[in-house]
Amino acid sequence: MNSQKETPLLSAMQRYVEAGAIPFHTPGHKQGRGIHPLLEQVLGRQALAMDVSLMSELDDLHGPHSCIKEAQDLAAALYGADHSYFVVNGTTGGIHAMILTVAGPGDKIIVPRNVHRSVIGGMILSGAQPVFMQPATDHELGLAVGITPETLEDAIRRNADAKAVLFINPTYYGVAVDIGKMIELVHSYGMAVIVDEAHGPHLRFHERLPLQALDAGADIVAQSTHKLIGAMTQCSMVHCREGRIDISKLEAMLSLVQSTSPNYLLLASLDIARMQMATEGKKLLDQAIALADWVRSQINTIPGLYCFGEEKLGNPGMVYLDPTKITVTVTALGLTGTQAEQILRYQYKIQAELSDMYNVLFLITIGDGEAEARALLAALRGLAANHGEKKDFSAIRKITETCVLPIPEGVVLPRQALLGDAKSVLFEQSVGLICAEIVTFYPPGIPLLCPGERISAEMIGYCRQLQTIGLIVSGPDDTTLTTIKVVC
Ligand SMILES: Cc1ncc(COP(=O)(O)O)c(C=O)c1O
Predict the structure, then answer these.
(1) Which ligand 1 atom sits nearest the alpha carbon of residue 89?
(2) Most ligand 1 atoms within 8 A of CB, residue of 89, 91, 353, 354 to mutate
């Protein structure tokens, strides 16, 4: 096996370019010769020369046997997997492939209700039947967090025929549960564990980070290498363990959801990101975590701002925390998170990762240093000192803390609801009809309706209440919810 210091895929690409073969192959720009100067200016000659294709010496993502296989094997060794795969359409593609591997038409998969849309996408592609678990909610933060062991056990007991359980490890905001115990329970029922670890490509490289699901016994995990470590946007990895899953089916499904012409620059970025983590991951994460600890403690000295940390651990669904996720709760300023994000962007030149009703999320990664951290803190001080508003969140808190409607009855599969005929009807006239889209309110970002579920009068009334107090709806085509799409 190659050493972790090597980058076999990148080296093969370099060898090909250095050999100077005259390219009568794709891509049509012929290593930059035919490219428009505008694109050359953006990408540079070297990158264009290395935008190569499927020559035999460059292997094949869909049947790797040489340099791609070597690069993937190094990733597997580093991540502790039996097999690792490079994915060029993000964790979205990885999640689609995982779901297609473990569940066919009508098979049940148990999933948290607050899953990323790619999970619903996987259900639509496979025809699987979701069984939803309600995640715990932190009402102070207005965020859905993890699944409790009790919720998981209840879902498994009621659905012992399910093929798999999907976990999110950790959430976008860095919150994780005791995944090891949960995986044990799922396996004891003979089900597979698949994990959306989009926000966990770095977990394995530092003891302060939550446990990587694969190390806790998960069967397949998908990680967005591009989100938090050094790969280019779109680049993810899928890792798996042998035993419970059909490896050749997983490979076939990864092949199904990916281009036959993967971009080699993207693939090389995965090879290099793996090498970087192997050779200096611990050191880089030491720095990022120390910086994030300092930023968190400084933010918590600014009147009107709160950045949650370890004091929350032990609450339902909150067992571990990725400290590099900096969630700043701005409600005490009388601002929404979205307003704060806009102010920070246009008055202080700080771009956050995202915002919601209560919070703004910032990522501290291996790419940050003290200067960036100081700029963020200066902007947050400016925000707190100069930009208070008068928004009163008490009505929102009252309703979101006290009212949790049961998950609606699933009548048809998401696949049928989305691929079949649908029509728009007035929301008030949709009682008893089957929803054909997702309706989610923020906070806390848990869908109230999913495709295939029956709409009740109670649900319509609750949505109207949420709208009246100013909650943001996301998902449906008509975001005023005057109309909703239903199955014909
Ligand atoms: C929890 C979660 N899962 C999956 C995805 C999809 O990942 P990607 O953007 O790599 O396709 C995201 C993207 O934001 C996410 O937040």
Answers:
(1) 11
(2) 91
Is the model's pTM score more than 0.90?
yes
- SS3 state of residue 334: coil
Pick the CATH number of 283-391 from 3.40.630.30, 3.90.550.10, 3.90.1150.10, 3.40.50.300: 3.90.1150.10
Supply the pLDDT for residue 134: 93
Residue 197 CB less than 6 A away from ligand 1: no
> Amino acid identity, residue 20?
G
Q: Is 90 in the pocket of ligand 1 (CB under 6 A)?
A: yes
Give Cβ neighbours of residue 81 (< 8 Å, ≥ 6 apart): 75, 214, 239, 240, 241
Structural domain boundaries in the chain: 8-278, 283-391, 396-487
Whether the CB of 121 sits within 6 Å of ligand 1: no
> Residue 295: which of 369, 345, 354 has the closest Cα?
369
Instruction: Express each pLDDT in 394-422 by its tens digit.
Output: 888 888 887 777 899 999 999 999 999 99
Q: What is the distance in A from the centroid of ligand 1 to the CA of 92?
A: 6
Ligand 1 atom closest to residue 93's alpha carbon, by position in its atom list: 11
Tell which residue, 111, 91, 115, has the closest CA to residue 445: 115
Q: Under CATH, which number does the domain 396-487 receive?
A: 3.90.100.10
